[in-house]
Write a structure and sequence with these properties.
With 425 residues, the protein is α+β, with helices and mostly antiparallel strands. The chain has 3 domains: 112 residues, no CATH class; 146 residues, Jelly Rolls, CATH 2.60.120; 154 residues, Jelly Rolls (Sandwich), CATH 2.60.120.230. 12% of the residues lie in helices and 30% in strands. The protein is built from 5 helices and 22 strands. A hairpin with a 5-residue loop joins strand 17 and strand 18.
């Protein structure tokens, strides 16, 4: 009898003690829905969809490698500096789940375990926009050559608008380097020659580029749509026009583009007005074969601000960057550190919780560049590189979405502030 019981115990032990099998529908699909499908679906930035087992299975080994090396989901910020509400990192448990699934042969599992499919708004990551501003006609891009920025006038709105979210959708991602939607107040002398829907070719260094009243929407590779928190919005005065600045980079095949901007309006005037604020270093002179060139940009805030987003912008030689704040009382803190900059994923990092910088805060940005042959993205390591529009040139920008009280004059942000601050009398 004892012998029979012992045999039965041994026989049943593996069944009771074996860990549950990791399957696609039960374990992996929920991770893809939460972390990946926003981009990995038809018409979005990712090269392949991951909406089903049939679509994901061929990429199983590549998925494991991408998550183990932290290549995907894309996130370049150093996790030891600051906390960001849009952090895309997978948890160690999520990474382990994907790795175990692949190691087990990437089994599908039962359809009964599949979570409900996520319902995406077709063509828009922000949901249905309240309005869409679109280029009236397609623009022809030649197969070869260098194109100046194209400026396209789109008439605005007859009444004041508060913008809470936007999404710029290139008509042809293969040739669109960036799109910026500038606004122009009524009566402005900036680009008075522009006619609705007719592109004007001008480099960004043209004198009239400084005459806009700000940017309300933008697209660069890898940047997600912006949806501001409740109580925050950008202001577009009644009668303002929209000037789309589109930068095209021919890719060897003649094609067309018709980009558009989707906008979500705030349901009521917000508590805070959001402004896109920036600092730059335009005096770039990167020597040939220089693997560690540094550029420095600085500014001093003229008023108290709340920071909602930080974004570094460089081109193909960009290597790393960081932003530091020195407060009026003299203490300093790093706001953002990007140890490995990726031109294809220019993320806006959104601070978790409140990031308030008082008037007189000095901001310093340090950006480094690799103009050597060791940089696989380098167009030409033998070339001296300066600031310029094209991706073969370079840029050194830091953009920040900052907020001030709705009724405060935005010019206070740019007033000259002393640094170090004068002591109180």
């Amino acid at each position: 009898m004892r012998s029979t019981c012992l045999l039965l115990t041994v026989a049943l032990a593996p069944a009771f003690g074996a860990p549950a099998k990791t399957t696609f529908h039960k374990d992996v699909e929920p991770i893809l829905q939460a972390r990946c499908q926003g981009c990995h679906r038809p018409g979005e930035a990712a090269p392949m969809p991951l909406l089903s087992y049939a679509e994901a299975r061929p990429w199983a080994k590549a998925m494991k490698e991408a998550v183990l090396t932290h290549k995907m989901p894309p996130w370049s910020a150093d996790t030891s500096v600051g906390h960001f509400r849009n952090d895309r990192h997978l948890s160690p448990e999520e990474i382990d789940t994907i790795a175990k699934w692949v190691d087990a042969g990437a089994p599908e599992g039962s359809n009964k375990d599949a979570p409900p499919a996520v319902k995406f708004t077709e063509g828009w990551a922000i949901g249905n926009p309240d309005t869409v501003l679109e280029m009236p006609t397609p623009f022809d891009i030649p197969a070869q050559g260098v194109l100046d920025y194209q400026w396209i006038l789109i008439p605005g709105f007859k009444e004041d608008k508060w913008i809470q979210g936007f999404e710029v959708r290139p008509g042809n991602r293969g040739v669109v380097h960036h799109v910026a939607a500038f606004w122009r107040r009524p009566g402005s002398a900036w680009m008075v020659e522009a006619k609705p829907g007719i592109p004007i070719a001008k480099p960004s260094t043209a004198p009239e580029n400084g005459g806009s009243d700000g940017i309300i929407a933008e697209y660069v590779p890898g940047i997600p749509p912006l949806v501001l928190p409740k109580g925050y919005a950008m202001f577009l005065p009644a009668g303002s026009d929209i000037m789309l600045q589109v930068h095209y980079t021919p890719n060897g095949k003649a094609t067309q583009d018709r980009s558009k901007v989707g906008i979500v309006f705030a349901p009521a005037p917000p508590e805070y007005r959001v402004i896109l604020y920036g600092m730059a270093q335009m005096a770039l002179l990167i020597p040939p074969n220089d693997a560690d060139y540094h550029a420095h940009a600085t500014t001093v805030l003229g008023t108290d601000v709340r920071v909602l987003g930080l974004n570094l912008h460089m081109h193909l030689r960009g290597k790393s960057g960081e932003v530091k704040a020195t407060y009026p009382d003299g203490h300093s803190a790093e706001l953002l550190r990007v140890p490995k900059y990726d031109f294809n994923w220019q993320i806006t990092y959104e601070p978790e919780g409140e990031m308030i910088l008082p008037a007189g805060t000095k901001l310093d940005a340090l950006m480094s560049y690799d103009n050597s042959a060791n940089n696989p993205n380098n167009p030409d390591p033998t070339k001296e590189v300066r600031f310029g529009d094209q991706t073969s040139d370079e840029m050194a920008f830091v953009y920040m979405h900052v907020a001030i009280p709705r009724n405060q004059d935005p010019r206070t942000l740019y007033r000259r502030a002393s640094y170090p601050p004068k002591p109180a009398e």
